[in-house]
Write a structure and sequence with these properties.
It is a single chain. By secondary structure, the protein is α/β, with parallel strands linked by helices. Helix content is 39%, strand content 22%. The chain has nine helices and twelve strands. Strands 3, 4, 5, 6, 7, 10, 11 and 12 form an eight-stranded mixed β-sheet that branches. A two-stranded antiparallel ribbon has the order 1-2. Strands 8-9 form a two-stranded parallel sheet.
Length: 295
């Protein structure tokens, strides 16, 4: 309803107590101030200032509008400052997404480093599957995400660019009492009779299905468990075995062991993904993610 410049003029008149003082403060002519205040009074539905022999005094309506004008102008000033800080990468909100095992060590390490160098950046963290994170980047509801091609490849999303962070070896989790727990290297064919704990299998190509096919068998049973805590629990109970990326090694409970697999193709690629116009803070976090990547 009211123009911002008119509200600034209202505040200046109220604070200086005269049209002349407001004109000098804002580099207007006195007649221009009179005209703008008259227009503002028409919009407000009545007089905003009493005209006195020396200067002006706000009416009750003028005091009310002045109070709101001060709040509005203060909010706009803060918004302008926050946007400037956001676009320089030194503050503001940064919406960050990652798949579950990236949140065990890789992303937290990089976020700790970001806090040290950009303490005014406020991170909003989101966990999700790669396809969901890429869609959110394309929809501009995320600013940066850590994604991977496991278990079914890396989806494409309009305008989203990806940079490889690392290759992450896929290990097999076995209970400590398992017959192969003491082996340094396990051939996948030795696990042909084991149930496999896997979130996706059969409905689309997966690395596990491809690896089993290369080893000459199809798993006799798939137990669909999506969360890592569930996979670890089932594996520890001897109910199945699971592929576990090396990034998740720190979260594996003591009653499980991780063993290397002989198939060199059993590894995933971890990427950092950015929207078409990334924020400076997102670019800084990408740099820190590279620094935090295990060698």
């Amino acid at each position: 309803m009211f123009e911002i410049d008119a509200l600034r003029l209202l505040v200046a008149v109220a604070e200086t107590g005269s049209f002349t003082g407001a004109a000098a403060r804002l580099n207007y002519t006195q007649s221009a101030v009179s005209r703008r205040i008259a227009t503002l009074e028409q919009q407000a539905g009545g007089a905003l200032f009493e005209r006195l022999p020396r200067g002006v005094r706000p009416t009750p309506a003028g005091r009310t509008l002045h109070q709101h004008a001060v709040e509005v102008l203060d909010r706009l000033s803060r918004a302008e400052h926050e946007l400037a800080v956001l676009h320089t990468g030194h503050g503001g909100l940064l919406h960050v997404g990652a798949f579950a095992t990236a949140n065990i060590s890789l992303l937290p390490t990089a976020l700790r480093a970001l806090h040290d160098v950009r303490p005014d950046v406020e991170v909003v963290a989101v966990e999700g599957q790669t396809d969901t994170l890429l869609r959110r980047l394309a929809d501009a509801t995320l600013d940066i995400a850590v994604v991977s091609d496991y278990p079914s490849g890396l989806p494409q999303a309009d305008g989203v660019t990806t940079t490889v962070l690392c290759e992450d070896e896929l290990l097999v989790a076995l209970p400590r009492a398992h017959r192969l727990a003491g082996a340094e290297m396990v051939d996948l064919s030795e696990l042909r009779d084991e149930p496999w704990l896997q979130s996706a299998y059969g409905d689309r190509p997966t690395m596990l299905a491809d690896a089993c096919a290369r080893a000459g068998f199809t798993p006799r049973k798939i137990i669909r468990i999506a969360e890592w805590a569930g996979k670890f629990g089932y594996a520890a109970a001897g109910l199945g075995v699971a592929l576990v990326p090396s990034l998740a090694a720190r979260a594996v409970p003591d009653d499980l062991v991780l063993r290397h697999l002989s198939d060199p193709a059993l590894r995933r690629t971890v990427h950092v993904a950015l929207p078409p116009t990334p924020l400076p803070a997102a670019l800084k976090l990408r740099e820190l993610l590279h620094a935090a990547t295990p060698t």
